[in-house]
Design a protein that fits this description.
With 385 residues, the protein is of the alpha+beta class. It contains five helices and 28 strands. Its main location: cytoplasm.
Length: 385
């Protein structure tokens, strides 16, 4: 009884109502504090990065050898226009333009020096998966989930040929170095070679047990490499169609491959003391990136994995050797662009590149630019210094 009188006197009932009213407010406040704290930390790290760039990127930049130039934040341009994820970005070999492919079924052309949008190539009826220039830059090949490969005249921007023959999504395409054939890879588990002049399929390479994700010819066009959902990388001799090597150490789907240019051979041999040194000409060397979050480097002549780079926190979607030969650049579903000093097997720089998965990257052969594409529908141009 005393308690209830006390309660009445002290207006405790009202407090219970207040409790209800403010229930959970503290927790909400806490979570927003944590969220803001995270944001503050992100911004602080970006600020530090920018400060570092100003102090280190200034006078030293002149002394830095162009062979060692790497992309520096922030990006020079963020280009928007695609209405779906960007699947592939590539530089034109001659002009100051680059091209992006997207799941919105279009291909867009941009000027990377000014950041201007140039034009859209329309023709595919489903996601455009991959694009490739010939060495002159006069022809562009594209492939799509609509099961076709298209050849475009890049001077008049017209589709001059459409090739049918795959039975499923065509995930990758590349024009051979000599310019008279195209190779393509598909979810139908095959790789096909097409004659540019006629559009006829002249060879089919079979052996992968699952979806073939990517196909890339080596520098002289005698070999092609492919990677697949079957977790392997294969290297094929073009002339005989035989599989020269099956590289199997990845533990998940292999998303991407890239041949190391000859400029990288000295560093690779130094880094790995690779066996092929003894047998005269080194290499060739191939990179592969996988959903197991690793990048591997292979000596194709002996079918051996020379090194594994670990650091990405999600699927690796693209990688290439820096034209100077000393670094590897990679992009992944952890939204970053990373630069690896592979001689010491370490990641030397990580750039927060996009708001979403980074699907593709390209490094210009002779201008100091890198381009990236993302599921966030943007294309970003990064200046190197």
């Amino acid at each position: 009884f005393a308690y209830s009188t006390f309660k009445k006197e002290a207006e405790l009932d009202m407090n219970e109502e207040l409790d209800k009213k403010y229930a959970g407010l503290l927790e909400k406040k806490w979570t927003s504090v944590i969220r803001l704290q995270k944001k503050v930390m992100e911004l602080e790290s970006k600020l530090n990065e920018a400060k570092e760039e100003i102090t280190l990127g200034g006078p030293i930049a002149q002394k830095r050898d162009p062979k060692e130039w790497i992309p520096r934040p922030p990006e020079k341009y963020a280009l928007s226009g695609h209405r779906s994820p960007v699947t592939r970005v590539i530089f034109h070999p001659v002009f100051s333009v680059m091209v992006s492919a997207s799941e919105d079924a279009t291909i867009k052309v941009w000027d990377y020096e000014t950041g201007d949008f140039e034009r859209t190539l329309k023709g595919h009826t489903d996601s455009v998966q991959d694009i490739s220039f010939d060495h002159t830059g006069k022809l562009l090949a594209s492939c799509s989930a609509d099961m076709t490969i298209k050849l475009w005249d890049f001077q008049g921007f017209e589709c001059i040929r459409t090739m049918h023959g795959h039975d499923h999504n065509v995930s990758s395409v590349a024009i051979m170095p000599n310019g008279d054939h195209i190779v393509s890879a598909s979810r139908d588990k095959t790789i096909k070679m097409w004659e540019v002049a006629t559009g006829y399929c002249v060879k089919t390479f079979t052996g992968h047990r699952e979806w073939v994700r990517m196909v890339r010819p080596n520098q002289d066009g005698t070999l092609i490499a492919s990677c697949s959902n079957d977790q392997t990388v294969r290297v094929w001799v073009v002339a005989s169609k035989e599989c020269k090597a099956e590289l199997r150490e990845h533990e998940h789907v292999v998303e991407c491959i890239s041949w190391a240019p000859e400029s990288a051979h000295p560093t690779i041999l130094e880094a790995t003391g690779s066996e092929s040194k003894k047998s005269g000409k080194p290499g060739p060397f191939l990179l592969s990136g996988s959903r197991d979050k690793t990048i591997k480097m292979w000596d194709v002549s002996i079918g051996m994995c020379l090194m594994t780079l670990v650091g990405h926190d999600n699927w690796v979607r693209g990688m290439l050797v820096h034209p100077g030969g000393k670094f590897i650049l990679s992009c992944a579903d952890d939204k970053t662009l990373r630069i690896w000093d592979y001689k010491n097997k370490r990641c030397m720089k990580t750039l927060s590149a996009h708001e979403h998965f980074v699907t593709s990257l390209d490094f210009h052969k002779n201008a100091p630019y890198v381009v990236t594409g993302s599921v966030d529908q943007t294309v970003k141009v990064w200046e190197c210094r």
